[in-house]
Amino acid sequence: MSFKSVGTVLTRTLWARGNRTPPPARPPRVNRLSTSCGALAGSKQIEKSKGQSCSSDTDRPSSSDAPSSSEPPHKCGTGEKKRLKETVGAPGASGVRRRSFTSNAAPMDQTSFLWSRYNDLKRLVYDLIPPGACKSLNSSVIYANNEVSLEEVDIYGFDYDYTLAQYSNALNTLIYDTAKGFLIEHFKYPEEIAKYEYIPNFTVRGLHYDIQKGLLMKIDAFHYIEPGTVYRGLSPVSDDEVLYLYGGTFHVPLSQDSGFYGKGPKVKQFMDIFSIPEMTLLAVANDFFIANDIEYDPVHLFKDVSEAIGMVHLKGYMYKWIMQDLDKFILRKEETDAVLHRLVSQGKKLFLITNSPFSFVDKGMTHMVGKNWRDFFDVVIVQADKPHFFTDCIKPFRRLDNNGDLRWEKINRLDKGQIYKQGNLFDFLRLTGWRGSKVLYFGDHLYSDLADLMLRHGWRTAAIVPELEHETKIVSAHRYAVTLTWLQALTGLMERLQTHRDPASKKVFLEWQKEREELRVMTKNLFNPQFGSIFRTCHNPTYFSRRLSRFSDIYMASLSCLLNYDPSYTFYPRRTPLQHEAPLWMDQLCTGCMKTPHLDDMASIR
């Protein structure tokens, strides 16, 4: 059951605890759900209220307006039908009449009033989320950002690394250790750095790195740094220092932020999975110089670490490790084989465009699919130099012979069973005629693999996001569901009651704000103690998440997710409520669905 389903259950429960039937539509002057969840008592309890006070906890005034204890509460006579004053809801919104709270007690003070609302709401949240409410989430699902019909897709294209071939985390340790060795041997860094071992799960994909300040951080979709996610070396930087460093704001200007391909003048975004060991090495190297009080330039450090990581790839170390132990490093080989067999049996055309060399791809594909793996693909292109392959029209295609050596003839067509090197997308489109939405391309790098294909050429794109497997497990946990729902409900309660500004109320709000911050940290730490989820900051999508929704029509944990869908399946994106559409989220449902605190006053003015 998703959170939207939980919201539906909550709505029905609210109805069930009232008149047992959904509220009918009312004239323009309608009311909202009672903002006091304690007012949700059953109809039997309401019947017992006849003859008692008809004062409403919902409309309880602030302490300055409350009647003195010497004034007797108003009593309704037997059979008297007292209609409570109703407030005007949002235009076009329907609601239910507020139910009266029955009590002969003297009016409570403001602090008690706020805490009673808090406790009522908390009981409601914890009562209405059954164990296993989100168990329907699983990592084998394909998620849609845009509507895609597989029946309309005739051609499937693939990247190789982390798409056709999924690698184990053991590869990150080798990349880190080897690049660290290059720092010491080639760039003459102090040998004491060698004592720093690789730290699994210290970083996450999609982080930004301030090159001049030497800071690793997570930025949201609006270019704001998430508080509590800034690290200098291996130590967190306080929010106060972050504000000082960035001129009193958490905002990173667009002129400084990463460019289209994540390589800005002052800030770089790490978008691919191979960047995980690079971020860790940057953190470790910074930490060493800081801990030993050694003066250094963060710009030089960034350049050296980047070159050291690049040497691991350029010198072929990564290719050698994987080819020497394919079983250790390549995951899901049977599933990749099954996907290719299935697509070919359905009459689909397949092609491969990768930056990796042919010898490496040939070894891996033979391991996963067999010696005849080239028979599955209509076109195979290696060392393509993406993303320049998609934007430049200069480099021509070169054919490789069976030994991997370059041939010299001009390429006038792309033949099945042959291997081609370099080239460009414009010649690819001219020679194949594969254009538009009938092409679906899979890749793991949002910029290098997917961005240009979607924005410039209208191909369908599919992002491979292995982190989904971990994140969906967290989101599916009952602890996360309850914590997040209570966080949302508490936020809504604070928004609804913020008009209470007397000193007693302010003290309560300070406690609520503290709890809200603790809940936000708790939900973040469930994913990663340093940086949280790759998809979300406290309440906004991350910079990575926004790019994921912009550059991919669909996304999934691995290519094997395709095996769960038939060839004519259509992926439909869920309608994501906009803020002005007043969705029945937990916070709004439990606090009256009232986003405007002064709606009564505005109604009288109008």
From TrEMBL:
Domain of life: Eukaryota
GO MF, one example: 5'-nucleotidase activity
Composition skew (Basic and acidic residues), residue ranges: 72-86
InterPro entries in alphabetical order: HAD-like_sf, HAD-SF_hydro_IG_5-nucl, HAD_sf
Stretches the record annotates as Disordered: 1-101
Keyword annotations of the record: Hydrolase, Magnesium, Metal-binding
Keyword Iron-sulfur attributed: no
Similarity field: Belongs to the 5'(3')-deoxyribonucleotidase family.
Protein name: 5'-nucleotidase domain containing 2
Organism placement in taxonomy: Eukaryota, Metazoa, Chordata, Craniata, Vertebrata
